[in-house]
Design a protein that fits this description.
- 2 copies of one chain form a homodimer.
- Chain A is of the alpha/beta class.
- The first copy, chain A, has a single domain, classed as Rossmann fold, CATH 3.40.50.150.
- Chain A is 42% helix and 23% strand.
- In chain A, strands 1, 2, 3, 4, 5, 6, 7 and 8 form an 8-stranded mixed beta sheet that branches.
- In chain A, helix 5 links the parallel strand 4 and strand 5.
- Chain A is globular, with a radius of gyration of 18 Å.
- The interface between A and B is medium-sized, with 30 and 30 residues.
- Chains A, B: Pfam families: Methyltransf_11.
- Chains A, B: Keywords: Methyltransferase, Transferase.
- Chains A, B: One of its GO terms (biological process) is methylation.
């Protein structure tokens, strides 16, 4: 984050709530198999508003977690979120640092494990970030990376306007220096960044009328809300008209109604520092 | 299949081999959790060249399997394939019938279970087919449906030509009356066709350099081979130029080389006749 990339989703209160809802819905899917041993030193690189931190802390209460972010404001929200979700003893154990991922204030090999979730998609130089992170990981330590890929979104009924709206989000994020199609690149990125034992697996959200909590929690309140959230930017950038944008968002909402279906793939990667 | 839809992939020897390779690579992913009890009466509707039949027979050796297809030639190949993959006793137990899915020569409720794999995508009236199949299923019996969805294909490096080539296959199949994006519709289709307890789950193939057998077996020899197989049709239909088509196929092959990744989602549905 030495390259100051504007966070495409913004920093509003609604956005913080969206990230919280998203993490709760997806927690089981993304985090259920991440457990760090008691006493292990874990770095969460790019904790944002703490949406993933609360799940890390709940799953591995005995670890020593250090969470860093480039934004002082996000760190304050993350700290409050962890305090609200954990007992006083647990939340007091988390170390919070405002820091730049490319210039971390930690000695070489300071951590047993690294955790990076929904961060690389916002960076102009994700490969450089992974290589910089490797320095603070001890040899034999693991890195876990979780990212989405907006190219994985498809749905019924299909809608050209909805696909276009997603395309506008992808483009805005690309123009901000990020890559919302990064999930498919995790394996080559980690390999090129010098990690061993790279293992990447898809983690798919599929929602239809038989899974109403996912329809509401993911299709509507996570994905559609995320796309809707960049409407003003898409209009300001002249990517679309108000009418077409509204058709796109309506098309996404339609997939959350009876007979609709929605598919989205996250990728979870693990690798080891040689 | 009362509506004679040309089978978009053709009936060549190469195509039969492709379907065999595909089934072997995917067998674990798609079929591992399908087991029918000894003595149960199972109908495989649309067995084609028997690519799935051999796995059904291997997984549930005690069932009474009846496999039907509209093509006499495919049935002959299916029978030979099962004979080559099973012992004489097992292969002799399979009943083969040339029949129309919309007009099956079986009494109401003749079967305990129905199995339908890679069939609905080729039908002009998949909803009508599912409703017709329901008649021969006993109340309380199950139907299992497996279909792909070509809209789920994404890959690294991304390639506009490769995406266009896939789009041409989707269009050719649509013009032949089929729907290669049908996976996302299984839940509403089964519900509308009068089944209960509809459960649909994605079955995702993700291949990268760390999984060379999948890269070869799926990315190259299944998916890329399938797209490449409709090149002559795409050119004859004027959908593309030879140069663009070759760029598209080269783009798909590139995803099977070092640093490439490939993602594709099948959908597996189960439901019950009320």
């Amino acid at each position: 984050m030495t390259t100051p990339v504007p966070y495409v989703h913004g920093y509003s209160e609604n956005e913080a709530r969206r990230l919280g809802d998203q993490a709760d819905t997806l927690a089981e899917l993304l985090h259920a198999d991440t457990r760090y041993p008691a006493g292990s030193r874990v770095l969460e690189a790019g904790c944002g508003v703490g949406a993933q931190t609360v799940h890390l802390v709940a799953s591995s209460p005995g670890m020593h977690l250090t969470s860093v972010d480039i934004s002082e404001e996000s760190l304050a929200q993350a700290r409050a979120r962890v305090r609200a979700h954990s007992d006083a003893h647990t939340s007091a154990r988390v170390q919070w640092h405002r820091a730049d991922l490319f210039d971390l204030p930690f000695a070489d090999g300071s951590f047993d494990h690294l955790f990076v979730c929904f961060v690389l998609e916002h960076l102009r130089y994700p490969l450089k970030a992974l290589a910089a992170l490797r320095r603070v990981l001890k040899p034999g330590g693991t890195i876990t990376v979780i990212e989405g890929d907006h190219g994985s979104a498809f749905f019924h009924p299909d809608s050209a306007h909805a696909r276009a709206a997603i395309g506008h989000l992808v483009r805005l994020q690309a123009e901000a220096g990020g890559d919302s199609l990064i999930g498919r690149r995790l394996q080559p990125l980690l390999t090129e960044a010098g990690y061993d034992g790279v293992t990447v697996r898809p983690r798919t959200v599929y929602a239809d009328a038989t899974r109403p909590a996912l329809v509401e929690g993911f299709t509507r309140d996570t994905f559609t809300a995320m796309v809707a959230g960049v409407g003003a930017q898409a209009l300001a950038a002249g990517l679309t008209t108000r009418a077409d944008w509204e058709r796109g968002i309506a098309g996404l909402h339609r997939t959350a109604q009876a007979g609709g279906t929605f598919h989205y793939t996250f990728f979870k990667a693990t690798a080891v520092r040689p």
